[in-house]
Amino acid sequence: MRSPLLLAFALAIGTAGSLPSTDAAAQSTRAVRATAEASMVLTGNIDVAADGAVSGLVLDQRASIAPAIAAFVDGTIRKWQFEPTLVDGRPVAKHAPLRVRLLGRPGADGNTEVRMTSVDFSEYDDKATDAVTAEQMRPPRYPEAAFRVGAQGEVMLLVKVERDGAVADVVAEQVNMGVVAPEHVMQKMRDMLAKASISEARKWTFTPPTSGEDKGLAFWTVRVPVTFALSEKGSRQPPSPYGRWQAYIPGPRHQAPWRTTDDAAQVGSDLLPAGGVYMVDSATRGLRCIGPGVRLHRFHAQGVAVMRSSLFLALTLAVGGGAALVDTAAAQTAREVRRQAEASMTLSGVIDIGREGQVEGFQLDRREKVDAGIAGFVENTVQGWRFEPVRVDGKPVQARTAVRLRLMADNPDEGSMRVRLVDANFSKAGGEREVSTDKVTSERLRAPEYPPQALTMQGEGTVMLMVKVGRDGTVADVIAEQTNLTVVGTARVMSQLRDILAKASVRNAKRWTFTPPTTGEAKDREFWTVRVPVRFAFEDSRERYGRWAAYIPGPRQRAPWKTGEETRVAGTDLLPEGGVYMVGRAQEGPRLLTPLG
């Protein structure tokens, strides 16, 4: 899958909640993002004949898996060869559960490399007598500090079990995180989750094997996966969407000090289902593949259908797989909040207009940075526009105008994406960009400080301010018209965060000053109303051209004064940051006669 999975990465770990950095010397958040991987775990059953050849393969919920992915897994596994399973010294057919992990990485050539990285045929049986089983394994408490900042991840424990079933030693072999932050913050989060897991694991007890080849060992080593996940209802482990990519940041692997062999690369060790106890180096570890266990494949997206489904994936990752804000189970669930998710994209270009107002040409800026499906949609839409003819001395003339376009995508039925053009702004015919004296312009607009509480909550978003400007250029009144957030949590937490960002913006805006218009139709008004977007984010928003930015739209508020805008204008919640936009003022440039699209 070409740009879509790349898009999913960008959203999952680019616009979802990040943790702020206070140490400039630490590895940057961008560098951490570069280590991100997208993983998909598929399950099913495999049948292996007596000679070790694969005789049957069934993937669970195949309808939920992209056809290209399912075909890749089928084609890979059916070519494998296994070490024959012996019963009383004779080879027999074997039926076993199957778990496969796929890894997706954006390639340098624009395609996405999909690799089968690990496979597991283990099945935990709590009644088995030839393996270590759980006796008392209470899950660890969620560390309060980790809970507060929305830290999520999985800790893979290596546990040394004594002959009496007690824990002799335990290490955190690896901690994979589902949130992103500067490296020093990631280390702290991994440490919090690992320490909580180890502390609780020391109290666990196990039942040693009483039969089989392993029963006489001096001790046993088992792997136990511990998941820290914050669901919309406060449960510890929400079900992962089957057949979808999940973004995560892999942590470093550590070797247990009591082990003499290094099995850090053991295939399938990162696939073990939560809730089980899995013996390491067991003599009865199940099927053993002796053929190629991994395979690389490149997917290239073709057609609009792929674009739609992958954009849905991108939104899912953006507001589902990244850092989450959590609150009480009695609040509106985070899943309900996620359903409100939208994504926007800003594009620009140049339009050539004929004497009759028809579009004679359209050039999209930096087309190579835009998904081919999106670029085609925009070009086809613009080519169908018609403008009011541009006149010079009363005669229609050819004209050229710069245009800034805003696209929006949402998820109406959780199964497909609807992409639409919601706003278009044109410069004056001919492309003049001189400072205008017939509109309100900024004089002193200092950005607000990041509220400390929002920093603690990882809060990011954009506050759209509606400002009433007096005739002396000072602020007579100001409201937060709308606050769109780029992190997800329950409705109560989202409301608190919107309130924090809005109050900081309003308080700061009251000190702003503007330059009123001195020419034009609006110069004699008693006051003017302008919109000013204020963005709170932990990284620069530049270099986002051609990329979707996911957000959760907040409720809109009406100004208590008359703004001159009787009805809501499309795209007013998506104005670019850094500008001052007059309300109720006729748009500059050519007048579009046809609908946007």
TrEMBL record:
Any Pfam family the entry gives: TonB_C
Annotated keywords: Signal
Entry keyword Oxidoreductase: no
PROSITE patterns registered for this protein in UniProt: TONB_CTD
Gene3D superfamilies the record matches: 3.30.1150.10
Protein name in the entry: TonB C-terminal domain-containing protein
Signal sequence range: 1-18
Protein's organism: Knufia peltigerae
SUPFAM superfamilies for this protein: TolA/TonB C-terminal domain (SSF74653)
Record bears the keyword DNA repair: no
